[in-house]
């Protein structure tokens, strides 16, 4: 049986007025299943932690740009730059910029962004170090760059998995009260 317009379910309206960017960040396409969960509040000390994470991610971007610059400068030196160097340098720079986006959204309180940043900051360094250990895949200078990249990203992961960050961004399944659902009916 088809429902009439009066019987059709209505879309849930946000409980609070969201900015245009927060409407995008809370979309299911961007944030997945938990896209509408935003931390109710974070203490002022969180600003210091996010600043440290931002510095580490900025250094990651600097390393990524420097990698591509070094690859460009050494492109004509035999054995110093391989196709894998170009590919890895480009992908890592793009990935780091994406992590920066996650950090920015997580600072705004979005659970999905915090969770992705935390997950990727733990997985990417391990994958990077395993790949760096493959003999002959990369020249020595790029293997060193991969180690630097991993150390910086492990620092980000260390901040994100600290007890205080987990208190400020608790698992929604355990602490639903710490979040507001921006799509729930008021």
Order of helices and strands: HHEHHHHHE
Mean pLDDT: 83
Please state roughly what percent of the residues sit in beta strands, choosing from under 5%, 5-15%, 15-25%, 25-35%, 35-45% or over 45%.
under 5%
Sum up the overall morphology in one term. Answer: elongated
Largest beta sheet: strand ordering: 1-2
Computed Rg = 21 Å
Which sheet architecture does the biggest sheet show?
2 strands, antiparallel
Estimated structural class: mainly alpha
Give the helix proportion (percent range): 55-70%
How many DSSP E strands?
Answer: 2
Number of helical segments with 4 or more residues? 7
Straight-line distance between termini: 30 Å
Write the layout of secondary structure elements.
Layout: H1 20-25, H2 28-31, E1 37-39, H3 46-73, H4 83-107, H5 111-132, H6 140-160, H7 163-168, E2 179-181
Antiparallel strand pairs: 1-2
